[in-house]
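Re: beginner question about structure tokens

> Can someone show what the tokenized structure looks like for a real chain? I only ever see the sequence side.

Sure, here's an example I had lying around. Input first:
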Amino acid sequence: MKDPFLITKEEILQLYKPVNPNTHKGLQGHAVIIAGSYGKIGAAVLASKSCLKTGCGLVTTFTPKCGYQILQISIPEVMVATDENTNFITHIHLPLTPQAIGIGPGIGKELGTQKALFEFLRINKVPLVLDADALNILSENQSWLELVPENTILTPHPKELERLIGKWNSESEKFQKTIAFSEKYKVIIVMKGAPTYIINQSKIYENTTGNAALATAGSGDALTGILTSLLAQGYEPKYAAKLGVYLHGLTADIALPKTGYQSFTASDIIKNLGKAFLELDN
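And the corresponding structure tokens:
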């Protein structure tokens, strides 16, 4: 395997766009997060909040009816649209055309949700982040991958990656299979792990931020929100992926002296996003 390119602060500063002092919320992008099912509305909360805290002007969350009050109370800044179904998503009908969509955190794999994902992919033309159960559904319906737009960002953890590309016997085989998958479907794969790698067809990038504190529930949901936010703000997918994983890891590096590894939670990612941006602005 060839040496990966390192995602360093120097490289990130070349692609990072500081906020225009004269901007307004309409220019900062409108993102949609499609997430949650009964018992997993927290995934929708984490993804939506991280999306907002990464600089997106507007965020609308699409969730089953059971998530409505939870989202409205826990994140007053987010708008909420609901499915007609109470406990899981069955039909994705958005009240707007956003600049980017993140789909998958906590949606489950109910048959109705699988059909909803298929119908959504069939008509969607908006830049996309696919995570969690969206990936698990696709791994069981691989022909649907043909519907995924070019340069979509996929964010599998090791088990989700294995379901997509099949088992591997060595690290080099894992990379070979992931590169082949990325080339076949022309998608960007964020291989979550220690360290996190980005596979963009034949190019491999290794993130230089982050630590073991990120190995906690909801960490991936926060990353989905971060990536969707950056896409909605107009970053090209290849740059959104790099900046997103760098910021996500940086929050854990900033928080570690106060939380230690054990007490860091996904909410600490969100809490420290502001400080991560300030490190880029300095």
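Each token stands for a local structural state, so reading them left to right follows the chain. The chain has a mean pLDDT of 97.
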